[in-house]
Amino acid sequence: MVQQEVKKKTRIYGTVAALAAMILVSLIFVFGSAPGFTPNPPITNPDGTPIVTPAASDMIPFASYDALRNYLTTNTKGTSTFGGGPLDQKYFAGDSARSGAPTPAPMAPSLAGETASSSSYSTTNIQVAGVDEADTTKTDGDYIYTASNDYSTSQNYVYIIKSDPNDPRVIAKIRLENNTYLAGMFLSQDSSKLVIIGSQYQVYALDIADVREPAVGMPSMIYPYYNNVQTFVNIYDISDKVHPTLASNFTLSGSYFNSRTIGDYVYTVVSQSAYVYQNVVPLPTISTAVGTAEIPATKVYYSETADYAHVDTNYFTFTSFYGLNLKDPSQLTNMTVLMGGASTMYVSLGNMYVTYPTWSEGQYTSIYRVSIDAGTLSFRAKGSVPGSVINQYSMDEYNGYFRLATTNWKETTQNAVYVLDMDLTTVGAVDLKNAEIRETIQSARFIGNKAYVVTFEQKDPFFVLDMSNPTAPRVAGKLEIPGYSSYLHPYDENHIIGLGMEGSTVKLSLFDVTNVNAPKEIAKYIVEGDYTSSDALYEPKAFLFDKTKQLLVIPISLQLFGPIGSGTVDPSGKELGFSTQSYIWQGAYVFKLTVTGGFELRGYGITHQENTTSQRPYPMYGIDYNLYVNRALYIGNTLYTVSNGKVKLNSLTDLTQIAEIKLS
Fold first, then answer.
1. Verdict on whether the full-model pTM lies above 0.85
2. Alpha carbon separation from 247 to 244, 333, 631 (Å, rounded)
3. Is 125 left (phi over 0), alpha (psi -120 to 50) or beta?
4. Quick count: other Cβ atoms within 10 Å of Cβ 328?
5. In 3D, which of 584, 630, 537, 544 has the Cα closest to residue 148?
6. If you count DSSP H runs as helices and E runs as strands, how many of each does the chain have, helices first?
7. Rounded to a whole number, what is the distance in angstroms from the first to the last CA of the chain?
């Protein structure tokens, strides 16, 4: 077996995939829409209904189009520009950075992220109970809905799959337009509607002689290309699963940022550069089959007291919040805010918090709070704290307070947790003092009156914080162990699962925090190999855990390397000899997880690759990235693993294969 054979190896070889997205991000030019908009935009939706934009507190709308244009001209400085949304980098990189490269649950879990024990099927791994997050795979217990960004053909499909183990098969396929990248999907509460959200790209080639000069604040670009990015929200009627029909759709100018669903309402956030080009400000637009409408400048909110004229590298975005009622998807409600950008979002049942980094007289995280109530969007507050957050799990709302963990990069890094009231005024803070001067936060999780934070440079301080007094949060305990956790997941109220790395290998930890003053690591598992990785390290939706079933499933990539003259054997026993051939195995590791038994590997033979088994990895040059397992779910006693090219069914009892569904 792979796990046994790799223990014989003594040489650790860590390979890191080339992150093409880091190189190609410079190609992203978020143009919003072609220049030439009229300075007197309409104030209705395309169908003639009013654009619903509620009043905002602490922020004011621009008095006129000219006021908006003058504000941007005065306050935009330097060459810094909006770099695009999270889908843009993946689209332009062809997702080459993957594998080593970032409907409410039917029964809301008591701990966010833990599948309800009474449910017969798993749901998306979400952060906040009752606040669903878009994902590429959804299920209602009878059908599986999975989206495929096909790397080989650049075609995107959504498949509806009958999940019955006795008759599993694709019953419908929805083809999306070319040049799109899927963000994910939502299911309505009654499973009658499927919402598909993503971005669509139109790349334009310019004449190399084009001497167009970018105006101040115009996004940078590499000639002779620019691209137009739009976000689409398609609502399909799937009452008849075999014949899904497009009921309505909206196209929103700008890059997809994030989305959530609460009850029957879908909330989508889109950002586009705000700039002046040839004396024109391209405004956000909403398009439907009947036409296109602009968001008027007088419906765009900004901070009247903010002064950016002295900031050398300041830029702006139109960040638009949209609310859609799935029971009446005829129009969108809208709230548009002129802000510096959008990098991270946290959503509670009543508020959306959007943050972005600011480097004005120091490093800060700017925070905007927009309240949500049955589709109504209202701007409520703006604030900031020192440092930067790493992801949504670094933030939380609890008992009327907003909490977040940040790292501030100075001569010595400073890690801290802040507590803010609903006006986003800081009321409490605690420093996380480390022995290492360059420690940075790797993961965080807030659960009730406790918070858990992991920092790392050479070792892993696992902090347990007592948050019971919002004005005086304190470090209750700290544990230092090798490696680090990049994702923390609740096991129960007294135990936390950590997923991270130790050296060049994936590490699983189980922490006992019953005594907050003395946390302990009571179980540990290392996925051995010359280099191992997991999508779940940076995508928590790839993490499947169910306490009642004692089930933990994560995708794993395992690489073996035979150096020249080593005589290294591959896991099948074949000697590699004088070769530098690299071997890789990718699939799902299935664990039994209990407090008493820790991590017990039940099997890791669920791979979708055509010419490999659990006993023999495949030469890396022959790996098929369309067959990378990226999600796992269960329905009843069947485990389903999903890749872009297949869905496999295995028995949860003994992991034997039941069936395989090919997606084409």
1. no
2. 9, 18, 28
3. beta
4. 10
5. 630
6. 4, 42
7. 31
